Amino acid sequence: MSVVSAEGLVKLDADSTRDIRKDFHIVWKHVLYLLLHIGKAHFNIVCYDASGREIGSISDPIEVSELESLQPYFSGTCRLKRLITWLFRLCLTIIGILVVVGLLIGVVLLLRWIRISRIKATEKRLARVRDLVADIVRMLQQQIRENEANPEQPLYIPVCVLRERLRQQNMDVAELWSDVVRYVYDVETCISVQEWRGIGETWQWQGGTGWQGSALSDQSQRTPFMTPPTECLKIRNMFSTDGMDQRGKQRIKRELLKRLTSCGSILHIGLDSVGNKVGA
Known about the structure:
INM_ESCRT-Associated; mainly alpha; three-stranded antiparallel β-sheet; transmembrane; chromatin DNA binding; Inner nuclear membrane protein man1
């Protein structure tokens, strides 16, 4: 409390008791002098100057600017109000912390749900693309069988025809067609892609009518043996390496490793640079 406010309160109390003196300012100066000497020791009152520095008995009373009680008195009502205010602030702090923690947990769970949803959507989309590629493989294999029955039938099918056939049976072909084409180019090495003048791009199945690639997802088609029947396995007429880049060769090796993983250790996979033979 400022010394001016303290002086005013004391003077107001003196006015109310009609005990005011003409020499009040001199008495107040003596009070300040007393507080400077014994105020801290006996009354727990500390004096400060205008700069906020604590002053003592060596200072003049006119230097006193602030008075502070080291043990302020609070009435029961005031103490109750202070307690209620403290509890209210404590509750607000706890609620704020809980809200912040809840928001952080909510954001983490939301991001996790978004990530899982995207992964599931991607897996579902990829599974659907594989199903469409499997349908294309069956069409190409059927075309091979028709060619065997009637040599006048071509071995290939134009891409536009394949797309139209799929569109008649599947409503999502238009949305997934770009992924289907990319899958055929990058993964399904058993489908030969060629360009014909007047026809456009055509796809042709390479090999027999059994499984010879990764398109068919039938899990029942497994290798009937657990150990390799010979130390060297050669696969012929599966695909052509003519014009195949290094990326295409790596795709073939990965596909073979995935399909023959239950047959035992594979020490080497080689592609014949001439013809269409693979040695494992």
